[in-house]
Each structure stands twice: as structure tokens, then as C-alpha cells.
Amino acid sequence: MRRFNIRTVTRASVILAGTAALAYQSNRFKSNNIQNTVLPLFHAEEKEFKKTQPTVYTGNHQQCVVAVIHLKSKNINDVKQVLASTRKVPDIVKKVLPEGDTNTPEDEFELPTVMAGVGFSVNLWKELAKSNKLTLPEGIVGYKERKSNLGGMPSAENWQIVLHVKGSTRSQCYEVVQGLVDQLPENVIEKVEDRYGWQYRDGRDLSGFLDGTENPSTPEERIDAAVTSTGGSFLIHQVWEHDLKALKKIGHKEQEGLVGRSKDWSNEMNEKEMPLHSHVRRMRDVQFKRMPIVRQSMPFGSVGGKSGLLFIAYSKDAKTFDVMLDRMVGVDGHTDGLLKFSKNVFGNYYYVPGEDELNNLYRKI
Ligand code: HEM
Which of 19, 164, 242, 351 has its C-alpha lying 20 to 30 A from 234's C-alpha? Predict the structure, then answer.
């Protein structure tokens, strides 16, 4: 069992800060740190929150995997067989947990070393809702193909089931995916794409920028941003391949302009100086207001092969992702600078049902 003390981290940061300027930097660093190492949990009285699958509201472990299971056909009877397998995920996780570890943590200081959440591509969830008379969640929209002058985002038409696993070791992540895949009926599966992510340095993207600085960090902020009234959440998963050689050829200042933050401490440029194409500006609305989502992205890949970012984020409203992606591809004429060195090769939206919704579905199949 991993033990974290979120309050100690906070107190230490405040003492360390001393001056207002330092407090600001420390705070930026702290919020990133929390996203990447601490798993905030609500206490028992937060009943609504407890019904959410834990991968949605917790921070990152050291390792993760997103396994996308592509179904061969769009036949609802085939899906039922796959659903019966996903039902076993909690037992699979239990087997992987070290002795004495629990997957029902009571508070934020005692958390399991591995956890998993199951989701359904939005087009599949719509079909499941229709055939099982389930109410569709508000804010549901499908993922669509996008184009821009710097490269596009391909669509994903087939039905998919997703498994998001967070663990202390890669072995744990692998074992959970393997445990599920072993149960799947081969005849209905087209392919399984499991991509493994890992924490790089102190929570940075492979480009060297801190990732997650402006992420909601308290449990209250996370639930507010990510959880629907029924305990569900929308997950966006995209795979971005970086061209790090090309990135290294441009200067430090230009790189910072692409992001809108400094590379060392992730200090935000002021609004007047921040270029129109910078990622941070693109990810805000037209009034430069934040649109909170819970990001849990992690780098992937190898030095000799492909590498980049497994973009993973949760929101209570999939339309927020739509606004962000439209702004990235430049619906208003300004394409996100990140697209100059990052290529999107995969993406989709998934609905990660609340635990009651999931059990309700399992009862019906
Ligand atoms: C190549 C892929 C991407 C990279 C390397 C990347 C990296 C970053 C970095 C370095 C930051 C600044 C620090 C921070 O606040 O985390 C950031 C901010 C952010 N990113 Fe990304 N990101 C990528 C894709 C995306 C996508 C696809 C979305 C949304 C669908 C997104 C949403 C955001 C948001 C909401 C922020 C915070 C903006 C704010 O300050 O209000 N990012 N990202």
C-alpha cells in the first residue's frame, strides 16, 4: 500500500515558499506534483463520488496503460459477450494487488497500488443505452475527424471498449490487461491496442515542459470538472507522436511560445504576450477563461522508436473536449503551435459509467 500525505506536501510547500513570488512557483509545481503522485479521494460521506470508477478522480501513478479493444462487428449480441468479460475487471485487479493492499481505500492516505476503469466508445454506449433502455448522459457527443493546416485528427468509427489502468509498476498494468484479454471471446475482437505510459522526470512531457500545472488538484475541483450527476465521466484518449528532433532545432523562447509557459517552472506568460497559437491560449475559451478538465496524460515510447504523449483526460461534458479540439485545429484561423512537432495518430471519446450505471447494465445483459 502506498502512503501519501497530501497535507505534509502542502505545508512543506508553504514553508518553503517564503515570498509571494516563490509561493506562486511552488504552487504551480505543487499542483503538478499532486496530479502525478497523490491520489486524492473523497471520504465516505461523499456518496455520489464513491459511485464513480476510481481512475476518473485519482491522480497518476508512476505507470499507466490505456488498452483499446476494437470490436469486429457492430452486433449487440457480440458486445454482450465482451461485457461479460469486463465485469471481471475488479477481480482481475484484486489478483494483481500485492498482499495486504486493498482496492476499496477508505481515505486519501491509503490507496491501492493498481486500479482500473472500464469505458465504452460513445457510439457503442449510445447503442447499449438504446438496447437496454438506459438514460443517455447529458453532454454526450461523438468523436469526429478534424483537419488543420498542420495535420489532422483521424476518426474512430468502430465500436471500442477501453481499459485505463494506473499502477506502481509496468508489470501490474500489463497483468491487468492480460487478465482481461485472456477472458475475451476471440471471435468478436478485431484487435487490442495496449499502450503503456510512464512518468517522465517530475511529471513532464518528453518535450521537457511540465504537464498538468493547471490541472484541478483538490478532490472538490476534480469531481466538479469530471463527474456527471450519475457518477459517470467522459474520457478522451488520444495518441500524439512527437518529432523531438524537429523541436530541438527551434529555440528555447520559441518553444515556450508554442506552449505559453516557461520550460523550467511552468510560469504562465501574461495574456498580452502569449501568442495566439500557444497551446495554453488555445485551451482557454475566447475570453481566455479556463475550461477545467482532469488531465492524466503520460509520455510513452522509446528513444530509438516512436515516442510522444498518451493524452488522457476526463470531463463531465464531452462538449468541452470538442471546443478544445476545434480550437487546436484552428476553427478561428489559429492552429495550436504544438501541432508543428506532434502528430495525432489515434483518438476517441469514451463514456466511463458510474458504478451504479455499470451494474445496472450488467444486470440487464
Ligand atoms: C501533443 C499533445 C499535448 C501536449 C504535449 C500538451 C502539453 C501541455 C502543456 C505542457 C501544458 C501546460 C502546462 C499545464 O497546465 O499542464 C498543457 C496545458 C493544457 N492542455 Fe495540453 N497538451 C497536449 C494536448 C492536449 C489536448 C489534446 C488537450 C485537450 C483536448 C489539452 C488540454 C490542455 C489544457 C486544458 C491545458 C491547461 C490550459 C490552461 O492553462 O488553462 N492538451 N498541455
Answer: 242
Cβ neighbours around 214 below 10 Å, total = 20
More confident residue, 57 or 308: 308
Using a cut of 0.70, tell me whether the model's pTM lies above it: yes
Q: How far is CA 158 from the centre of its chain?
A: 21
Ligand 1 atom showing the smallest separation from residue 207 Cα: 5
- Where do the structural domains in the chain lie, given as residue ranges? 8-59+96-119+137-158+201-364
For 359, the grid coordinates are 451494474
Overall average pLDDT of the 31-40 stretch: 34
- 211 CA → ligand 1 middle, Å: 7
Name the burial class of residue 151, with classes exposed (0-12), middle (13-18) and buried (19+) by CB atoms within 10 angstroms of its CB: middle
Q: Which residues contact ligand 1 via a Cβ below 6 A?
A: 205, 207, 209-214, 236, 238, 240, 259, 261, 266, 279-280, 283-284, 290, 293, 309, 311, 321, 324-325, 338, 342
pLDDT at 65 over 90: yes
CA 280 – ligand 1 centroid, Å: 7
User: Ligand 1: which of 148, 283, 288, 339 to mutate, judged by most atoms within 8 Å of the beta carbon?
Assistant: 283
Is 17 in contact with 9 (CB distance < 8 Å)?
A: no
